[in-house]
Design goal:
By secondary structure, the protein is of the alpha+beta class. The chain has three domains: 42 residues; 112 residues, Uridine Diphospho-n-acetylenolpyruvylglucosamine Reductase, domain 3, CATH 3.30.465; 92 residues, Enolase-like, domain 1, CATH 3.30.390. The chain has twelve helices and 14 strands. The strands form four sheets. The chain has a five-stranded antiparallel β-sheet. Strands 11-12-13-14 form a four-stranded antiparallel β-sheet. A hairpin with a 2-residue loop joins strand 8 and strand 9. It is globular and about 60 Å long. Bound molecules: flavin-adenine dinucleotide.
């Protein structure tokens, strides 16, 4: 099928874009188009106006200053995968981005598009939840900063209002030497995950955990942090019993069922990917001298 008719707009500056968003009703922003175009072609959406945001250079790019990382919403997924600077300061990105779709989809798809579309199994929103990122949003009333804990409003639903633009995503990197683990299960390489997990660990010289973050995705409608396990791991070593704590919490989530798998099977996978991601993070921690 072909997309329904719409008026196409091609702003070249942020000011021009914000003017269009303020003036027009029933708009959709076009980023990489990897989710929007299929939805238009399948007639799941029929906006009157499509505003292409691909020609506004300031919306793209990875900026690192000290331990602060800012990623422009229009940064392509391929660039996140390729960035050595990002891989050094936040190694979880390179591990996760290799699982996002295919070379072709990553060359167009953007982190902002993924974080606005919010497929439950998408890796990039999960990384934002893992890293306690903040979302820099601009709209008719100016700029507002939305913490990750408030961004996820449910299935395919972000905290973004209709006339707002996600401008950038920011997070503070973890200390050098932290361990990062990523694991997902998908039917075929490049498919959306049926369940996935990512974990970050930082330990003291005696290997006791001083900070932990674990996120599950593809299990509930939005990425979910294992907050109880993260707390319970503090001060412990990452032994079998500690990993079991996280697996138990993962297996207790309110999992979705769909045409591919039952709730029970998804919960089983949630436990498995948690165990693998956490063990991997533990094995990669550089213990301080
Ligand atoms: C074959 C295939 C396989 C895929 N596999 C995966 C996968 O394994 N994992 C995964 O995570 N994704 C996967 N995707 C989806 C892909 O990552 C998309 O790129 C992503 O979901 C949307 O990003 P986009 O830049 O293409 O956004 P678009 O499709 O252009 O936009 C998506 C939505 O977000 C809105 N939007 C976009 N940018 C902004 C912004 N800055 N501010 C406000 N609203 C905005 C749009 O209006 C639209 O509603 C796959 C896609 C395909 C086609």
């Amino acid at each position: 099928m072909k997309a329904p008719d719409f008026s196409y707009h091609d702003p070249r500056t942020l000011a021009e874009l914000m003017g269009l968003l303020a003036d027009l009703d029933d708009t959709k922003l076009l980023a990489g188009g990897q989710s929007l175009m299929p939805m238009l072609n399948l007639r799941l959406l029929a906006p009157e106006h499509v505003i292409d945001i691909n020609r506004i250079p300031e919306l793209a790019g990875i900026r690192i200053e000290g331990d602060m990382v800012e990623i422009g919403a229009m940064t392509r997924q391929a660039d996140l995968l390729a960035s050595h600077e990002l891989a050094l300061i936040a190694p979880i990105f390179r591990k996760a981005m290799a699982h996002v779709g295919h070379v072709q989809t990553r060359s167009r798809g953007t982190i902002g598009g993924s974080c606005c579309h919010l497929d439950p199994a998408a890796e990039q929103p999960a990384l934002c939840a893992l890293l306690d990122a903040e979302f820099d949003v601009i709209g008719p009333d100016g700029v507002r900063i939305v913490p990750a804990a408030e961004w996820f409003q449910g299935y395919l639903q972000s905290a973004l209002d209709e006339r707002e633009l996600l401008r950038a995503i920011r997070f503070r990197s973890w200390p050098r030497g932290h361990g990062a683990g990523f694991e997902e299960y998908a039917r075929r390489r490049g498919d959306f995950a049926i369940a996935g997990a990512a974990a970050l660990l930082d330990t003291a010289a005696d290997r006791s955990i001083r900070r932990a973050a674990i996120v599950l995705f593809g299990v509930e409608p939005s990425p979910v942090r294992l907050v109880k396990a993260e707390q319970m791991l503090l001060g412990r070593k990452l032994d079998h019993a500690a990993i079991e704590i996280a697996m138990d919490e993962a297996r207790g989530l309110d999992a979705m069922s769909d045409a591919h798998v039952s709730t029970d099977y998804r919960l089983h996978l949630a436990g498995v990917v948690t165990q693998r991601a956490l063990s991997r993070a533990g094995s990669l921690v550089e213990v301080p001298a």
